[in-house]
Design brief:
The chain has 7 helices and 6 strands. The protein is α+β, with helices and mostly antiparallel strands and 162 residues long. It starts with 6 loop residues before the first helix and ends in a 21-residue tail after the last helix.
């Protein structure tokens, strides 16, 4: 599964590489994809249904014939770090509640070289705060509250002081 790219992330990538129609793929919200999103955001079921409705679609980074991201090379990602989607900057880490976890991803170099979370954070030169921050930004880019359990305030419901 390729993680979806939000509109904000897509615009940021286009700003760095120019409008490259081959960089993104529009993909249907399949049952498997929607199930994955529910597992990734277990406490945001209603929002996941709103963001990825049955019969809808989502944008993702395109993949080559072998299924690898078109920006991924042996030396790493071709996109400068600030242009990368939040998921890519966070990988192989993920945040659930107040806990950072590590994906058991086949072929992940960080996972192969470091055996525990502390070692992976050190290898990636990533403070725990940075992982929480990136995850919060990813959630905001999709219209979710920055942390599970917080109410989602949409612009139409936001209250601004007069």
């Amino acid at each position: 599964m390729c993680f979806p790219v939000s509109t904000i992330e897509r615009l940021r990538i286009e700003e760095h590489i120019g409008l490259d129609r081959g960089a993104f793929t529009l993909e249907p919200n399949s049952v498997a994809f929607r199930d994955s999103m529910h597992r990734m955001f277990p406490n945001d079921g209603t929002a996941v249904e709103r963001l990825f409705p049955e019969g809808g679609s989502h944008a993702r980074l395109s993949c080559d014939k072998e299924g690898r991201c078109v920006f991924l090379r042996r030396s790493g990602c071709l996109l400068p770090r600030p242009a990368r989607p939040y998921y890519c900057r966070l990988f192989p880490l993920w945040v659930t509640g107040d806990r950072i976890t590590v994906f058991a991803a086949a072929g992940c170099l960080a996972r192969r070289e470091a055996q525990d979370l502390a070692a992976i954070l050190d290898l990636l030169k990533c403070a725990a705060f940075t992982a929480f921050d990136l995850h919060g930004r990813l959630r905001l880019a999709w219209g979710l509250p920055p942390k599970e359990g917080l109410p989602c305030v949409t612009p139409s419901r936001a209250r601004f002081p007069k």
